[in-house]
Amino acid sequence: MDTTLRSHDAAHLARKVLGLFKLRIGFVIMITALAGFAVTPGAGSGGIPLAVLALAVLISSASAGAFNQYVEYDTDRLMLRTRGRAFATGALPHTPAWLALIVILLAGSVAAAWYATNPLAALYVFLGAFFYAVVYTVWLKRRTWLNIVVGGLAGSFSVLAGAAAANPELGAVPLLLALVLFLWTPPHFWSLAIANSSDYATAGVPMLPVVVGNARAAQIVFASSLALVGVSLLPVFFGAGLIYFAGALTGGAHFIRKAWQLARAPSRKTAMSSFHASLAQLSLLLLAAMADALLF
User: Nearest 5°: CA angle at 214, between 69 and 228?
Assistant: First the structure.
């Protein structure tokens, strides 16, 4: 019985620690870096350097996610969506030792990217984590509704890291893909913020729906989705092929439809549908970009 209890406690602790690092988001960020590498002219098979870069992006993103939860543990306690997080509940001690671990992970990931690829790729790895952890979390989140707009650069830097690993002279397609990530983040997160607007209001976080209301925010999500999908089709004019076009168009049309439904009838249900549609749109676009680059 004691052995079973200890195993259960260990598994529970492991889940709390893994949740701290937001690994699901980290894997998405890692895939954007792989897509940036794949669409860059002259990119080879990559091999070990690409694997190291992918791991570096994942670890740097994880360190930024952990820092976000470390800084926001007090706000997390006020929100239904986040009150179960490890620092908020006290399941993990909120001590400076975590900051030391976060710094070590980030420094190690940047150093690995530098050693395996080149200094520019390593710089982008660092900037991706810095913009999420410091610019978004510390400087902007509690001050302005523009927090997620500027914070969206974190995803763009991961694309640029992958592209720079293949060729430091960035071409049009990877730059456009980085712009897509920048434009994707606001409507993606604002959809989630509409679904949880009362949480953000209670916590005093000025997310867009808290500032302008859910109805106006939903209209902005729809307009933003149109801009996003329009820009996502531009790589076709710079060498991206039919697979990319099909993926970008299909995923984009789905997101626009869900965002339109949100704009017409703002509710938690339509907001979450828009949020999930944004994830589907990005996933399909990234997979199509990599398939298109690898097959043609």
Answer: 75
181/189 Cα distance (integer angstroms): 12
Residue given tokens 């907001």 in the structure block: 271
CA distance 10 to 15: 9
pLDDT digits (tens, 9 = 90+) for 8-50: 555 666 787 788 898 889 999 999 999 999 999 876 657 899 9
Of 165, 56, 160, 138, nearest to 105 (Cα)? 56
CA distance 116 to 110: 10
Q: What is the pTM of this model?
A: 0.93
Q: What is the DSSP secondary-structure string of 130-185?
A: HIIIIIIIIIITTT-TTHHHHHTHHHHHHHHHHHHHH-SS--HHHHHHHHHHHHHH
∠ Cα 13 16 21 (to 5°): 135
Rounded (10°) CA dihedral 166, 51, 153, 235: 50
If DSSP codes are grouped into helix, strand and coil, which group holds residue 285?
Answer: helix
Start-end of H helices in the chain: 2-20, 23-38, 47-71, 73-76, 86-89, 96-116, 119-130, 147-151, 153-166, 172-195, 197-203, 208-212, 214-232, 242-264, 268-295
